[in-house]
Amino acid sequence: LASLGGSFFRPQATTDLGWNFRCKRSKLERNTILLDLGFEGVTFAGAHEMAQEYCRDLVGEGFTIDQYRWILSSFNEDDLASNGWDRNSVPYSDGDPNTHLWSEIHENCTNDEIKIAAVENNATLAFMYHKILTAPGETVRDHVVFEDDESLDAYIHENDAITYLHLYDAVSKSFVERGLDAMAVKMDEKLGGEVVYPAAEFFETGKYPLEKEVTIGFVDSEESLARVRPFLSFCLSDHGGAILKEMGYWPLREWEDRSMHTRLGDERGLDLEPIQESCGPEGGHLTVSGSEDVAPVMSIWTKIHNLGCPLKVDQSTGGSTAGAHRVCGDFQYGTRVDVGMMARKFSADEAVARVDRLYVHDCLIGDKTRSVIEVDVSLLGLVVLFPIGGVGYQCVSQMGVSISW
Q: What DSSP character marks residue 191?
């Protein structure tokens, strides 16, 4: 077994399916299978209704990775700038390397020192050195270390400090009970400036920028599989997942878990024969773009399909309108795509349905010689939950709204 920080580089190995690799640097002819076990990363938190929350709201609900780096780093600003840090991320810097004030990030933030405290964890630190504090010799600046969460929380509330945590810690029941606020990451303005919170929806879609997959590789041979399959089956079991959660890692979703069991070739895996029957022509390549709501569905399909078929899918988002325009070849929204993802129907000015086949639409934008087939793939909706007998339940009942339970 080999623990990896991601997939192989092309000079190391080649692949058709994206998970079964042919080694290029081995003296022996050797194939290797990659297995994802979960996600590791870092989240940040501070006391509720304190300086970090006030300042966070002023800068747009979250701090950028460059701002987190400045807050954490042992380097002065000149050393940071020479190692890829953006000076513009701290526009009100006082130039004093001995201070890290909230007011240096925004002029209306409090003029208080940003204090850091943590229950030290080697895995979290290692990730921060990989993703945030990336320069040689760069470490976390002076901070207070505690042995337990209770002492840490007391210090955070008394001193208006911030802390860093594992992924799962920020969404666990115990975290909610600690009276802490999870701090968001604000993406670069070039990437839309989206604010991404440490939450399940962002962990599972890969949109949270401070996470990465925990991956291992093992030799693809009957001899190797006979030894490693029982152990890895346990790692992917409910018990293995519970251990990951306890250690702060984010576990795989059910479909990802089934996918990994399929790579492993054990009884919990999927039958590859139906997948391989839909492989299509050799060297297939699809371009896909559009709705963020449909993107997770397409991503799941792609990864499951790649278990048995070497189809390359380049996927991007941009909204339903971008999906409609790009599938119709409208270059104002980007290059043409093979599949446009939409969480709505075509509008009257985008395409018109044919009378004899209502699912075929002739484009009215972009390339007007193009026709598009519309396929419904799933339903998207919202469920509202109330505690039975609670205030919300009583209010809605009095309004005459039907409630099922």
A: G
